[in-house]
Amino acid sequence: MGVKIEGKIEKVNGKELTYDEFVEKYMEKNQPVLLTGLMEDWRASRDWVTQNGNPNLQFFATHFGKSKVQVADCGAREFTDQKRVEMSVSEFVDQWVQNASTIVVRDKSVLYLKDWHFVKEYPEYIAYTTPQFFCDDWLNMYLDNYRMHRDPDVYSESNEISCSDYRFVYMGEKGSWTPLHADVFRSYSWSANVCGKKRWLFLSPSQSHLVFDRYMKSSVYNIYDEVSETKFPGFKKAIWLECIQEPNEVIFVPSGWYHQVDNLEDTISINHNWFNGYNLCWVWDLLLKDYNEAKEYIEDIKDICDDFEGLCQRNLAANTGMNFFDFLSFLARICFANLVQVFHLLINGESLIWNSSPIGHQLTTNLASIRKIALKMKSIGLTRYHGFHLDFREILDDPEFMKLCMVSEKTYAMIYHQHTSDYGSKKSLMGDVRDSNIIRSHSSQVSTPDDLIRFIDHVITNLCGVCGNENVLLSELS
Ligand SMILES: O=C(O)CCC(=O)C(=O)O
């Protein structure tokens, strides 16, 4: 059964696109786009590609051969994904070379190296720089300093940062592919072709129900298969967008768009998943949906369970990678980092004329989106949980939090072409924030979404008093 393709993804020269245009046309509207001109000067494009444009497998074997990586067997399905095995990069390269020289095609398994945390493993080797459009990345900024979920039953050193990130390298021979899916946490992703060619087929979120069975439980695995009409009655009606991605092109994949990807040539790509103030609502909606499913699944043991809610949250974290309180911690820390930057602008004597200061405006947009999600969390009756709390005044002494603030500040300075401030004085800034009347006059403890909302409102209302922008700032927040 052929799929109905009725549209192409727009291709835009990334060098002629401003950040604000990218936000307005693609990130806010949640629309895909293919961008050119963003990969010049990447070390990956030089080192990883041979003169005739193929993957330089020998380079990988020589320099990164010992790395252990996840490799998918594209011909073997395991539940909703491909079967994966762990092997070294050298073993993967050997099999690729052997496959390429095998004449008998039957029974040959096509291997695809996926989700290699290359940046984490080789921080000194700067293979690429993240294009400016994708830098407002709260997920990876956070995971560089904190874990998303800490299992209380598993012992770990308190200062160990083994949290992983969502920055990956993919490598696969012609014919390797990725089954139909929407991205983890319903994040955005971007994917850059260092070499090779990919075919992407996209389905808009308004049509995603069409790839599910009638109970909305399982989705189509491979859209080129003979898809059973009895099992997936809507599938034939789905209308797909196609994109052929050439080398040196970067694709932006918006939240919640189902997509399937086929490597039309031997390909190496780099991709990141991320979220920020523009797609936070997607992350919360997914978390709530997964929570309801986790709860429904164990509903019949509710009456015999001592801590039913705790079990639901544990199952949610196991299935989705975080639970409600992980997400609240994430929101609170990111929110605090934004508030520190607001203080910083004020202390540096920047008048916070929100509409004309791009960073001020960005910080307000961020706080507004965090506040909106906290309101949604509050509306489902999320209350205190197992002594969970974060204290804004205490967190100011946390070195990881300081790093989060610094990276966030640097990122916005880079995006909006501003200077970053003197990091030497950061410690004293934290002290000034802690001792300010605004912070001292209100509880800085956050245990529930409602606490977070009150804290944001208190700080912003009082800062408005200081900078004289009451109406503008408050109306943007609400
Ligand atoms: O390149 C691939 O095979 C899959 C990438 C993908 O699905 C993504 O970046 O979301």
Descriptors:
single chain; 478 residues; alpha+beta; 9-stranded mixed sheet; 5-stranded mixed sheet; iron; JmjC domain containing protein
How would you sum up this structure in a few lines?
Keywords: Iron, Metal-binding, Oxidoreductase. About 1% of the residues have low confidence.
Question: Could you characterize the architecture of this molecule?
Answer:
Mean pLDDT is 91; it is low at 157-162. This protein starts with a strand and ends with a helix. It has helices at residues 19-27, 43-47, 57-64, 89-101, 118-121, 138-143, 280-297, 308-320, 324-347, 358-379, 392-395, 399-415, 426-435, 437-440, 449-467, 470-477, and strands at residues 4-8, 11-13, 33-36, 68-78, 81-88, 111-116, 167-172, 177-181, 188-195, 198-203, 239-245, 249-253, 258-263, 267-274, 390-391, 445-446. The protein has two domains: 5-274, Jelly Rolls, CATH 2.60.120.650; 279-477, no CATH class. The chain has 16 helices and 16 strands. The chain has 478 residues and is an alpha+beta fold. The longest helix is centred in the last third of the chain and has 24 residues, at 324-347. The structure holds 2-oxoglutaric acid. GO terms for molecular function: 2-oxoglutarate-dependent dioxygenase activity; catalytic activity, acting on a protein; metal ion binding; sequence-specific DNA binding. Keywords: Iron, Metal-binding, Oxidoreductase. Residues 119-291 form the JmjC domain. InterPro entries: Cupin_8, JmjC_dom, JMJD6_ArgDemeth/LysHydrox.
